[in-house]
Q: What sequence folds into this?
């Protein structure tokens, strides 16, 4: 049996209140179905029309609306299907290697013999110490006599304070490791005089293995022009 035609909401037709509410519920749920993407094979009008004869006298209008909304929800869920794995070919976000969630990943290490310059401006001495430890693990063997270092560390930030001789006791591990890698010819440490002045540091405040450059960013660019890769 085909579904009953929906009542037209024309003033003065004398439609009973249950029929007006029925028509409004049909219009509302059809609009809801359209806004949520629609359902194939499910007719809101048919669901409600099929139950209309039972509730013509106004009894159970609330049940009618609840069942209608439930039918809409079932249709939407059936159309969308259960959640599953993403389709093949979908690229998933991968965590950065060597970093915990919310942490800055470690700086990359150069290949053996590659000339690189680390542009360093850090507040945290532990991060600089971690970099030196990684360089020591990979490159920490003495280079042949006369071989120039291939790794330059240009310091032009607050980390300069950690090389202050007057703070050596609290930064012993950092300074000793940097001095050993410099003595092995693995790295060369360069300090920015402009930043040192702003921090109230003198040349005599830093260890003897540290070299001095007028302006750190300019030194980074100079080394880059000579073939150093900026890290």
A:
């Amino acid at each position: 049996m085909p579904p009953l035609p929906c009542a037209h909401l024309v003033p003065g037709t004398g439609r009973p209140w249950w029929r007006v509410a029925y028509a409004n519920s049909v219009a509302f749920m059809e609009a809801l179905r359209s806004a949520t993407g629609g359902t194939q094979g499910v007719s809101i009008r048919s669901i409600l029309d099929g139950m209309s004869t039972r509730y013509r006298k106004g009894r159970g209008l609330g049940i009618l609306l609840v069942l209608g909304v439930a039918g809409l929800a079932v249709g939407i869920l059936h159309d969308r299907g259960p959640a599953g794995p993403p389709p093949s070919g979908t690229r998933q976000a991968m965590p950065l290697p060597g970093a915990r969630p919310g942490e800055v990943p470690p700086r990359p290490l150069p290949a053996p013999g590659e000339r690189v310059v680390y542009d360093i401006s850090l507040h945290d001495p532990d991060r600089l110490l971690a970099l030196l430890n990684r360089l020591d693990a990979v490159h920490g063997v003495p280079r042949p006599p006369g071989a120039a270092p291939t790794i330059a560390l240009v310091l032009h930030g607050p980390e300069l304070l950690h090389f202050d001789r007057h703070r050596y006791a609290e930064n012993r591990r950092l300074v000793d490791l940097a001095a050993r890698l410099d003595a092995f010819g693995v790295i060369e440490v360069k300090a920015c005089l402009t930043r040192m002045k702003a921090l109230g540091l003198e040349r005599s405040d830093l260890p003897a293995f540290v070299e001095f450059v007028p302006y750190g960013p300019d030194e980074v660019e100079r080394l880059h022009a000579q073939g150093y890769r900026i890290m």
Summary: Residues 116-230 form a domain with the Hypothetical Protein Ychn; Chain: A, fold (CATH 3.40.1260.10). Residues 61-80 form the longest helix (20 residues).
